[in-house]
Amino acid sequence: MIFDFKYKSLIFASKYSETKRGDTKSPLLFLKKMELKEHIAQLAQNHLPDDSYYLVDVVIKGTDTRRKVLVLIDGDNGVDIDACASVSRALGGELETDELLNEAFTLEVSSPGIDHPISMVRQYKGRVGKRLKLTLKTGDEVTGKLESATDDGITFLKEIKKGKKTETEETNLKYNEIEKSFVLISFK
Question: Which of 3, 111, 137, 98 has its CA nearest to residue 48?
Fold first, then answer.
């Protein structure tokens, strides 16, 4: 048999390695998912409305019989529902035409939202003026306002509680000092 190495041989190898319980433990299955993720990311990138939009992540979840593909996009001026719908229609059609997913799947295209951490320099630059909660590599958690973002790091007004008062202290952080960052939503 001759296999197209990129996909068919990996599918064959992962099916071949199934255990009697039906679990797949092949390291090749992980490789197949990574290649699939990269391929979907490239397709999604090609369908972004314009250069002000960018791909944040592609997450593939679920079982072999029912997958969920989550495509997270962001924009320099935010993301509207029309941009998500446009990418979803184009990407969904291409995924079905190319038969990249041989099983049933659900495709969701959205902006990252508050439950997804900031993961790119471009996202920091678009969140200047927002309140963030940072988890640093040291394990410390700090909250404050993002003052500026450059290609090297951020300037952050760290909130320091002193009794009932909250004071701020300007702090410069490199991106490699930050473990996770989340935008805080204010309901004031």
Answer: 111
Note the pLDDT tens digit of each residue in 116-170: 999 999 999 999 999 999 999 999 999 999 999 999 999 999 999 988 999 999 9
| Cα gap 131→115, rounded to integer Å | 15
Q: Which helix (H) or strand (E) holds 72?
A: strand 66-75
CATH architecture of 5-110: 2-Layer Sandwich (3.30)
DSSP state of 6: I
Class of domain 121-183: mainly beta
Given a cut of 50, the residues of the chain with pLDDT beneath it are 1-29, 31
pTM of the model: 0.74
**CA distance linking residue 111 with residue 146, whole number of Å:** 20
Give the residues across from 18 on adjacent strands. Answer: 24
